[in-house]
Amino acid sequence: MYGSAERGEVPQAALRASLGCGNPIAVAELREGEVVLDLGSGGGIDVILSARRVGPTGTAYGLDMTDEMLALARQNACDAGVGNVHFLKGVIEQIPLPAGSVDVVISNCVINLSSDKAAVLTEIARVLKPGGRVGVSDVVAEDQLTQQQRAERGSFVGCIAGALSKREYLDGLQAAGFDDVSVEFTHEVADGMHGAIVRAIKTRAPERRGLPVIQAAASAGCC
Ligand SMILES: C[S@@+](CC[C@H](N)C(=O)[O-])C[C@H]1O[C@@H](n2cnc3c(N)ncnc32)[C@H](O)[C@@H]1O
Fold this sequence. Notes:
By secondary structure, the chain is of the alpha/beta class. It is built from eight helices and nine strands. Strands 1, 2, 3, 4, 5, 6, 7, 8 and 9 form a nine-stranded mixed beta sheet that branches.
């Protein structure tokens, strides 16, 4: 899903660790000076690409729950020579950043893995600034597929069984305070299930619920 120029911008180890289902950088339209947050940053590929696009006056945060992926991402960012990155330990259901602190939230094949997607969408709305935007790649099911039919097509950890349907994604984003929401299928990954690009703009306060901000160990890139 990444072009040859993008592949050339990241260390081989970051490319090898890539476990996404799309290229959120291609849709996020990142600008110099912006603050970007990648939910479930894994080996750090999208954080490194974001850091280059927002430049030294911007910041790219990666959030992941596993020490192993955080260590790999920090090493990859160091090898890539990007200093404007911070990798945070935490869960995407309780994002360890203050309200209204982020311009763009990206994510690559992670939201389907959450067992509380309403919390994730509400948390995205909380951390975004007014007018902030979402550019996410995820697996999304066609609306006619029941939960059981999705589970028949693949496992939860395989990013299939936990996928939202297109309607569920659109409704969830609207309930969380987003407008201009869209879910665009890009490629089929199983019968009736697709890699998709999810876009939205935050224009309102979240309606569903607010979640407490948790303390998380933040550390700058190692360089
Ligand atoms: C399928 S991989 C995708 C990694 C990365 N986005 C990429 O494109 O290569 C999922 C990543 O999300 C992390 N993850 C899964 N559920 C999470 C959660 N609820 N909170 C934080 N991180 C999570 C995992 O540790 C893993 O690194």
